[in-house]
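chain below, 368 aa
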Amino acid sequence: MHYNSILGRYFSKQIIVAFFGVLIAISGIIMMFDSIEALRRISGRDDTGMSYVVKYAITKLPETIDKILPFVMMVAAMMTFWRASKNNEYVIVRSAGVSAWGFLKPVLLTVFLVGVLNIALFNPISSKMYEMHATLKYRFITRDPTAMLFSSKGLWIRESFEDKILVVQAKSLRQEKDETLSMQDISILEMDQDAQILRRIEGLVGTLKDRVFKLRGVQIFKSGQKTESLPVYEYKTTITLQRIKENFVDPDAISFWDLPDTIRFYELSGFSAVRHQMRYLSLLASPFLLVAMVLVASLFSLRPSVRQGGVMLMIVTGVCIGFMTYFSSQLIFAFGINGYIPIWLAVWSPTIVVMLLSMTGLIIKEEG
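prediction:
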């Protein structure tokens, strides 16, 4: 059966409608709980109102959807296949001489295209919303409506230092062999505990070694005072090379289209880009994961007759397998981040295993 046939379009439309229906329902529930959490946060605060609650729930939603999307697709597929079995549509399709694979082929292609659209269109929006959500929480904590957390520059790190808050920006980072970090266009902001800027130090070039910034071409700005220019300036800090490695931008806040350049930037700078590589590979694997979830749903939801009994047990079993797939993938993902297994194996193995097992089960079911 060709996927452009009437039958293919019919079942593709069914699963898309079910997918968006489940997605809207779950999104509503998620936003409700996020709004309750935001209301709890603002209780007793006079400087924050309902606008924070709305922004908090909306900006956090894409991050949550990104994590639950495979389960949404699995539930939508189960609903579609269960309806087909209940209305005897599956029996009619099989009686017409269409195999299970002919029945599933257009559905799987549609689901794969949904996954491609997700990483190509939805992911850039999701990453931007993730960044906005992190900035919103940071502004809430600092009580400063103009505070910024992220930057388009290569480094943006925040550190508590004595009775001050230290924020360092830089670009063109490079790690030298002697554990020295070379930087260009460095900006150091000193702020008080209320996130008010006390002093800004800018340098054209500089290095970080043994918790000391050595800057050249320095200008020091302080409110109400004349700008001070110095050829060389040393600034003691608690920031270390390891601290910087741990505080690179979260991969979830970077768009799929920007991840390759970000990975190259970190690798050229001498830092590990394992987390970003795994994020990029997981996005590439996400359409295949959606297909695997649909295969799991078809294995436990497609039945020639609903009168055979045990329907609820099969559906619950399918849902449990979906959750087991998620938790096992997270465990293997952790192994990949820590270097115990290759990152490509950590990303692709759960999807491939689930897909192969589901296909094997469908083949056995088809021959039976």
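The radius of gyration is 26 Å. The first strand starts at residue 155 and ends at 161.
thats it, cya
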